[in-house]
Design brief:
With 290 residues, the protein is mainly alpha-helical. It is 80% helix and 0% strand. α4 packs antiparallel against α10 and α12 runs antiparallel to α13.
Length: 290
């Protein structure tokens, strides 16, 4: 009787576990469909003719119609806006990585015995809790007074707003790197700068790649800040601004609009595909304090 009761309990637990697992997979599949459906619509609409979209908006295209992409690239001066986005993204990300890593290294190695470095760290940390919408009106006024309503001003703003999050992630990650490695290098005659470049930076590469991807995606897709700073001159537009004005110009040509969206997605997806394996490892390892 006791054995039957135990077997019955095991069966109930196994059934409960199977049901819970099935519900989890159903939930994940539904979430995957919700995420992939807009991407599916973007792809099929970009390769359709106007008549195909009018006949059935959700159907797969009968053939891969490439004239939408040709029209975007040839008629809309697309490459000007593309290279504007590339230049702003590359310059901003390079300076974000360069400046925040040096700042985070100094803070992480001195904050335990220096109130000055600890105060700077918490001061920068407060920037994470300040939403851009709360400061955008005075920000536009100040950038106008300083004559920074241009691409240079936009790069400086991206660096400024990215610094808080990047330093927060880097400080915690660098603190997990044993300082004994740097001490050994200094004993062998290496300078502090040499230890930083040759030892610390290679060891924090996963976090650097994480910051690179997060900020590259944010800067590449940024619309509101670009709209406030760059919308005066079409020659300085980035891809999001081009798509915003492109939609207004070609209101009824959804095929060309979606083709422009798909072309804009390709560069950042390529970058993400190459470095995405560093993101999880960078965030999880940085959360652990040695």
């Amino acid at each position: 009787m006791e054995q039957i009761t135990k077997n019955s309990t095991k069966i109930k637990k196994g059934t409960s576990y199977t049901l819970r697992t099935a519900l989890i997979y159903i939930f994940l599949i539904i979430g995957l469909i919700i995420i992939l459906f807009p991407f599916y619509i973007t792809i099929i609409t970009a390769f359709k003719t106007t008549s195909e979209s009018a006949a059935n908006f959700f159907a797969f295209p009968k053939s891969f119609y490439l004239d939408n992409f040709k029209a975007v690239l040839q008629k809309a001066n697309y490459f000007t806006y593309f290279f504007n986005s590339v230049a702003i993204t590359v310059v901003a990300v390079v300076f974000i990585l360069l400046l925040t890593t040096m700042c985070a290294y100094a803070i992480s190695r001195n904050m335990n015995h220096s109130k000055y470095h600890k105060a700077i760290y918490y001061y920068l940390l407060f920037g994470i809790f300040v939403p851009f919408q709360a400061v955008m009106v005075p920000l536009v006024k100040y950038t106008g007074d300083l004559r920074l309503n241009n691409q240079t001003g936009l790069v400086l703003l991206h660096i400024t707003f990215a610094a808080s999050q990047a330093i927060f992630l880097l400080v915690n990650y660098i603190r997990s790197v044993p300082s004994d490695l740097e001490s050994a290098a200094l004993i062998d005659g290496c300078t502090i700068q040499g230890a930083y470049w040759r030892i610390v930076l290679p060891l924090i590469r996963p976090m650097l790649m994480t910051i690179l991807v997060l900020n590259a995606m944010w800067i590449w897709n940024d619309f509101l800040m670009s709209l406030l700073i760059l919308n005066k001159s079409p020659n300085t537009w980035t891809i999001p601004l081009f798509q915003y004005n492109f939609k207004s110009q070609y209101t009824f040509d959804y095929n060309m609009a979606f083709a422009s969206y798909l072309v804009a997605m390709v560069p950042i997806m390529i970058i993400y595909a190459f470095v995405q394996r560093y993101i999880v490892s960078g965030l999880t390892q940085g959360a652990v304090k040695s």
